[in-house]
C-alpha cells in the first residue's frame, strides 16, 4: 500500500523512535519494557556510529599507532627495534575487531521483533505523521535520535572527489596511504592525524585557529600544541584557500591544498588524500521536525530542550543524542536514550531519569587532552571567585620514568566553597585524572576531602595531588598538609 496514493495511516503506535544509534537503541530497550506498541525506524546501518565508524574503530587505529610509536621510540631506554608496519594488517585488524564490536550490537537488534523495526529514511509530514517507505505512522510520542554526520565545507566534496576521506570512510581503507592532510584539529582530526602519522603516513594537520582540541584555557592549549608538535607537522592558524585533485604522469590521482600559513605566506600541500574533520552537524534539518512544533536556533539546536530527558517544552517530542547537538558524546547519547525511554514509559519499575552529567570530554591523542566541569571562560563569566591549581608533568616522577613527561593540568577551585569547578589537562593518563575530577565535581567533594584520600607512590596521579595542593594553598581555607620536598619525586 503506497501511503502517497491512499494517504491512509498504516500504524498507530504509542512510541516511535527515529534513529537506531546508541541513543535510539537505548530508548527502545527502555520503552519497550512497558509498551508493545512501539516502532523503531533507522536509515542505513543498525550497528551504531560508535561501534562502526566512530569511537571503536578510531581507538583500534590509535592502539596500533601506540604500539608503533613505542617500538620506534624506545632507543633512550636502550631498547632498539627495527619496526616494520604492515598497513594491510593494521587496517585488517581495525576492521575485524570493529566488526566484532558491531556484531554484538547487530545481535541485540536481531533479537527484537521484526514488526517493531523499519529500515528506511523517515520524514515527518505537515500533519506530524511519520512517512517511511510505504508507511504512514501516527505516534503519540516521538523520540528523535538521528545522530550527526560529517560536515564538509563549501564544494570540497566535488573538488577533492575520490581523494576526500571522512570519518565515515576512513576505517574502510585497506592499506595505509603514503601521505595525507587532515583538516581540523578537533577530536577527530587530532586522533586520526596522530595515529596515521605514528603508523608511518606523512601527515600534515591543518586548523584555521591556533587551537587544538577546542581547548579554552590558553596555557593548556599552548602546552598541547607544544607536546603534539614534537611528532606531528601542524599548520595551525592557517587559511585554506583552495582544495582539489590532479592526475599525475603515472595516472595516479593526488590531492592538493593551497593555503596561507600562519606567517601569511602562500603554500601548496600535495599528497595522496585529505581527511576532512571540520566538525559534525546534527541530522535533523531534513527531517521535518518543525512539523511537530519544534523550533531550531541558528545553530540547528532545538529550542526548549530538557537536558534530562530530551523533551522539547511540553510537546510529546524528545530529541536525544547527537541529534540535539547539546553534548555530542557517546555516554551522553546513551544516558539521554535511557532517560527518554524511561520518561515515555513512566510506569516501568526500571524507569529512571538520570540527572544531566557534568561536562566531561577526553581526546585520545598522546598526551591525552581532557576537560571536565566548567571551562575557564564560563567560570570567568560567572564571576565566581576562583583559583587555578597547576602542575606540570614535564618533571613529574612517574611520567618521567615512563618517558611520557609532557603535560600540564589546571584545576579551577572555588574560593568560597573549597569545591572544584572544573579542570583542563593535556598529559599522560588524563583520562583517569578527568574521571576523578568528574567524581569530585558530581559529588561535590571538597579539595580537602580529595587530599585526605591516599595517593599511591609512584603514580602519575600524584601529579593530581600536587595540583590539588596548589589549589588549596591559594585558598582562604587553611590546608591540612604542608607540601613536602619529596612530593615532586
Ligand atoms: C570518528 C569518531 C570518533 C568518536 N569517538 C568518540 C569517543 O571516543 N568517545 C565519545 O564519547 N564519543 C565519540 N564519538 C561521538 C559518538 O560516536 C557519538 O556521540 C554517538 O555515537 C552518537 O550516537 P547517536 O545515537 O546520537 O547517533 P548515531 O549512532 O549516529 O545514530 C543515529 C542513527 O539515525 C539514523 N538516521 C538519521 N536520520 C534518519 C532518518 N531521517 N530516518 C531514519 N534514521 C535516521 C542514522 O542513519 C543512524 O543510524 C566519536 C564520533 C566519531 C565520528
Ligand atoms: N574522544 C572523543 O570523545 C571524540 C573523538 C572523536 C569525535 N568526537 C565527537 O565528534 C565531534 C566532532 O569532532 P570533529 O573533530 O569533527 O569536530 P570539532 O568541532 O571538535 O573540530 C573541528 C575543527 O575543525 C576546524 N575547522 C573547521 N572548519 C575549518 C576549515 N575550513 N579549515 C580549517 N579548520 C577548520 C575547527 O576550528 C575545529 O578545530 C566532537 O565534537 C566530539 O563530540 C569525540
TrEMBL record:
EC code(s) of this entry: 1.8.1.4
InterPro entries: D-isomer_DH_CS1 (IPR029752), FAD/NAD-bd_sf (IPR036188), FAD/NAD-binding_dom (IPR023753), FAD/NAD-linked_Rdtase_dimer_sf (IPR016156), Pyr_nuc-diS_OxRdtase (IPR001100), Pyr_nucl-diS_OxRdtase_dimer (IPR004099)
Cofactor section: FAD
The keyword Nucleus belongs to this UniProt entry's keyword annotation: no
Keyword NAD: no
Entry-linked Pfam families: Pyr_redox_2, Pyr_redox_dim
Record keywords: FAD, Flavoprotein, Oxidoreductase
Positions of the Pyridine nucleotide-disulphide oxidoreductase dimerisation domain: 361-466
FAD/NAD(P)-binding domain sequence ranges: 14-337
Highest rank taxon of the organism: Bacteria
Any GO molecular function: dihydrolipoyl dehydrogenase (NADH) activity
Coiled coil: none
Family: Belongs to the class-I pyridine nucleotide-disulfide oxidoreductase family.
Protein name, per record: Dihydrolipoyl dehydrogenase
The organism of origin for this protein: Psychrobacter coccoides
